[in-house]
Each structure stands twice: as C-alpha cells, then as structure tokens.
Amino acid sequence: ESTYAVEQVHVTMKGASCLRWKAQDFGVPSLGCIFSSHLLEQALLQALKQAGISMYFGVKNLELARDQKWQVNFETEAADRLSLEVDGILGADGQHSMVREKLGIPARTTNFEQDAWIIRATLNTPQPAYAYEWFTESGALAWLPLGKEVVSLVW
Question: Which end of the chain is more exposed for a tag (fewer CB within 10 A), N or C?
Fold first, then answer.
C-alpha cells in the first residue's frame, strides 16, 4: 500500500457541479495524494527514531516537573518505571491528553454530534485518479482513489 496521486478533483454542491480542478491545468503531475494514515505514522516514527528521539507508548502514572530541565516519571506498558531528565516534551497523546492535563493547559472541545463512515471498496474495473466530493442537504460524501481499483468512500 502506498500513496496514490489525484489527477482531478470534482466538487458538487446540492446537485450542481461547482468546481473541477485538473492537475494538467496547473502544470503539475497531481493535485495531491491520498494515503492511509498508518503510512504517515510509520514515516513519522521512522524519522523520529533516526533523529535519536525517544518515544514511549502506553504511558501510565505520568508525573512532570520543571526546573532547568524537565523531570519526567512514568510507567510503560511493560510496567517499567522510568525517570528521565529531558530538554523538552512533546505530548502527542490525543484528545484526552495526559500531558496537557498535567501541565494545566485548557482544552476547548465542541461535539458536533456527527459520525462518519469510511468504507474501502475494491472495484471491478480500473478507474481514473479522480477524487469526488458531494455536498448535499443530508451531509457530505467523498470518493477518494487509493489505487486504480481501490477507493475510500467517506460519508
């Protein structure tokens, strides 16, 4: 699985075609790429590892303190207790961030009361590398090419 270049984007608003962009009209080979998020995650993890940056997953019982450097104490998934002294901390730990909470950084959230369905479909015949978006009274629908015979439908 890899990235798949999008050659055209079609946007329709309530049944009327609004926009149609073609890469060739802009003198570029593609308008962007569609890829699975795990590919981005793998690339980021590899880059961090190559840069010598330590990463810890499944952290529990986090304690943070700061003097000249950060003192970080936590347990790992393997139940190891670690104590580190570091120059900086990056808390990429999601919506309910333990790091943000421990540092007292407020979060403003909005529940839009919406759900999305993401469907990966294999097609019987190859399709062009076109992305489609439809905006209707009942919501949005997107057709995103992941390959010649694979698409992601987002509704």
Answer: N
Q: What is the DSSP string of 50-100?
A: HTT-----S-EEEEEEESSSEEEEEE-TT--EEEEEES-------TT-HHH
Instruction: Give dist(CA 7, CA 130) in Å, integer.
Output: 6
**If pLDDT is split at 50, 70 and 90, which confidence band does 1 have?**
low
In this prediction the pTM is 0.64
Q: What sign results for the dihedral spanned by CA atoms 43, 48, 51, 57?
A: negative
The length of the chain is 155
In order of 7, 96, 110, the CA distances from 113 in angstroms are 33, 18, 9
Per the DSSP assignment, residues forming a β-bridge with 12 are 17, 134
List 11's β-bridge partners, or say none: 19, 133
